[in-house]
Predict the structure.
Amino acid sequence: MRILHTSDFHLREFSDQRWESLLKVLELAEQKNADVLTIGGDLFDSEDAAEALHAELQNLFSGRSFKILIIPGNHDAQAFEAGRYFGESVIILQDINRPWEYGSAAITGLPFEELEPEELLSRLHEAARRVERAEQKLLLIHGELLDVSGDWENYGEEEARRYMPMWLSMFKDLQWDYILAGHFHSKCEIREISSNSERFFIYPGSPISLTKKEIGPRYAVLLEPGPGAIPERIELSTPYMHELHIELTPERLDDPSEELRAKAQALPQNAQILVSVEGYFDRTKIGMTEQELAESITQVASELNMVDQPNFKIADLSQVVQDQLYKDFLDNLSSQELDENKAEAVKKLMIQAMINANR
């Protein structure tokens, strides 16, 4: 059995970028000859979106060469009630007592609920008992793995509270071979449930950057359950956020806007660019004031696939670098046996101190 796992499309409108990302994942499932596409929750951003897109999804999902297994997430927990039909290829997994079987494998769905860890662990034990005889046991779940959770930004635009919190240790003694999860947006995470176990917890990440904090290419995960099988990240051609950072130094002699243009031209077309410029420069070397430099960079940035205005944290050091105190400091610094990164950090501290003293 070949499974392509994805999650967290947060669909809102027909034919927007989120909808197009779903089309690309469906195409990938066809290309990879998947038997099953699993969607680990939050297919929709809201129940209203599910209602608006219902007919279009029926048409989109129908006639597929693979089954599509979906569980509700915290955003669309009510979207699949009352037997809502999404096409003959779609199976909604809402009951842990009714796993879906494919040959010798069983896939159990555990949708999002307002559960504390103790309640969740009890449900996991209950679900595991239902599939004891299956050779390959897979769990489709939507919640927060605290081992990888980090900051709230990793969960898109969620409010700061826990969503069905869990730990890898909760699965250690339960014989799930693969946990196919959803809810974690930031990036693709594949963790072994325990060391050298060949059992995996998989977050594919959002298939399209939903916020400016979801940086880097997007992925789906391909797996063929069986002994020694390692899940494979598959990079998607969907839009993603990419940070282009320009660091200024007082030694710089050229306008950095051309560096920005060159870096942007090297990126794929689906990269949506976030520009940041920070550091210190000497206008007598670059030949531009602070305002002129910002305007030059902004002009180049406007020609790029940029999603926001450039973020500037820059300062002109032309007066500071002419100060004898700064020159003496540089002479002293060069005599120290410091590595390049350490020396640069010390230089920045000195520059900031002199700027503050001159205010």
User: Anything to note?
Assistant: Residues 3-235 form a domain with the Purple Acid Phosphatase; chain A, domain 2 fold (CATH 3.60.21.10).
